[in-house]
Automatic annotation (TrEMBL):
GO terms for biological process: proteolysis. Pfam families: Rhomboid. This is Rhomboid family intramembrane serine protease. The chain crosses the membrane at residues 7-25, 64-88, 100-119, 125-143, 155-173, 179-197, 209-232. It comes from Desulfobotulus mexicanus. Signal peptide: none annotated. It is a multi-pass membrane protein. GO terms for molecular function: serine-type endopeptidase activity. InterPro entries: Peptidase_S54_rhomboid_dom, Rhomboid-like_sf, Rhomboid_protease_S54. Belongs to the peptidase S54 family. It is found in: Membrane. The keyword Membrane applies. Residues 62-196 form the Peptidase S54 rhomboid domain. The lineage of its organism: Bacteria, Pseudomonadati, Thermodesulfobacteriota, Desulfobacteria, Desulfobacterales.
């Protein structure tokens, strides 16, 4: 498949840095276990300080901005490895279909949409890049169906396989945010419909500038949250 584009690499690095920060805020509470599903899990208070979302942070703490930040946090080593592997694979397909900036816009919008639907579903606390990855899968599903031809059919069938896998994981594994996955998937289809894809609607300079500004604002928010969390980590005991 080749090397991923620069934007995908940046996304992976940002996720990795935020995961490392979540372990450093309260390292004494990090879970060191042989259980692969819980190994190197940051504690809940650290994740709340870094912007985990859900009904508790949003409704009870008033932190609506967590709908943006939660997509860059992860609850264990396996969690981030799985999501980044999926982003590495799906992101390259989406980048080719939509262009790097439009792909990034879909990624960010569908992440927020997935977490917003999680509020409707009453999910108390949730994190992870999977809502955004599902958004890219939804966008690729639309692209494959709309484009048609040999390539379009191959992409469509490939994304169907991903969706089936997500359904199996969602029903078999505990703690999976199916509201976030479903919301991201549907939002990805709608975003691809609204924004189009490269072969029909090439990226414009205006679109790139808008996405660049949005991305800088998101990075600024993440940097501010990480900085304040590390500085005020002594207040963990008073958080909840």
């Amino acid at each position: 498949m080749g090397r991923p584009g620069e934007i995908i690499r940046i996304l992976i690095w940002v996720n990795a840095i935020l995961y490392l920060a979540s372990l450093l805020i309260n390292p004494a509470e990090t879970k060191w276990t042989m259980n692969p599903f819980a190994a190197l899990s940051p504690d809940t208070r650290s994740l709340l300080m870094l912007g985990a979302t859900g009904t508790f942070p949003v409704y009870q703490m008033g932190n609506w901005w967590t709908l943006i930040t939660a997509g860059f946090l992860h609850g264990s080593l396996l969690h981030i490895l799985f999501n980044m592997a999926a982003l590495y694979h799906v992101g390259q397909l989406a980048e080719r279909a939509f262009g790097p900036f439009r792909m990034l816009l879909i990624y960010l919008l569908t992440s927020v949409a997935g977490f917003a639907l999680s509020l409707v579903g009453g999910v108390r606390l949730t994190i992870g890049a999977s809502a955004a990855v599902c958004g890219l899968i939804g966008a690729l599903l639309y692209y494959g169906k709309r484009r048609g031809g040999f390539h379009g059919k191959a992409v469509y069938q490939h994304t169907q396989g991903w969706i089936i896998g997500l359904l199996i994981i969602g029903f078999l594994m505990p703690g999976i945010n199916n509201w976030g996955h479903g919301g991201g998937l549907v939002a990805g289809i709608l975003a691809a419909f609204a924004l189009g894809y490269s072969e029909k609607r090439p990226e414009t300079q205006n679109l790139r500038m808008i996405v660049f500004v949005i991305a800088m604002l998101v990075l600024a928010l993440l940097a501010w949250v990480a900085f304040t969390a590390l500085v005020y980590r002594g207040s963990l005991g008073r958080l909840i």
